[in-house]
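Lay summary. Proteins are chains of building blocks that fold into shapes, and those shapes determine what they do. In this project we predict the shape from the chain. Here is one chain we studied, written as its sequence of building blocks.
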Amino acid sequence: MVEVNGGAVVAPPVSGLWRLADEMDSSEDRLTSVDSEYLRRLHQHDLGENQCSSMVSKHIKAPVNLVWSLVRRFDQPEKYKPFISRCVVQNANLEIGSVREVNVKSGLPATTSTERLEKLDDNQRLLSVKIVGGDHRLKNYSSILTVHPEIIDGQPGTLVVESFAVDIPDGNTDDETCFFVKALLKCNLKSLADVSERLVSKEMAP
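And here is the predicted shape, written in a compact code that computers can read:
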């Protein structure tokens, strides 16, 4: 359980859970700047019988506080997510259980998504969201996103890690499902990097 604004993370038992460690050895998502045990504790998913899980990561040349200020805005995902055209939050106050209605841009196999805020921890910079409705095939989708400070080329940078679990749709394999979801998440994180690094450039401009 993680409470808004600084609650402690209590990790569930490891047995029977997918762990980020299962993905950390791939060259594509190799993580070297953050303690692996710390990441394992944060990124754990209790998988159902017909679910798959995986993760993506992104190194961003921007300070961690700047990146987190964008990520934590559950009410404004369109600030960096390129596939979202509109977002309406049912609760004025952001708290665990808050629900947002998201409109998806044309070109994707969906138009709407209903998403619930599961966890928000400003101390550990952790955001978790669960999809609870919408006209798409991502059933029982949940994600955990964390941001971590690092040094890139001698300057303050950020490592973003996002893991997920989702039902495998009928007619698809776990590999196909993970490939599709990871492609979407990589687009989101690339856009997050672009937005963050552009803000840094503006701050440094004379």
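What the prediction tells us: The mean pLDDT is 84.
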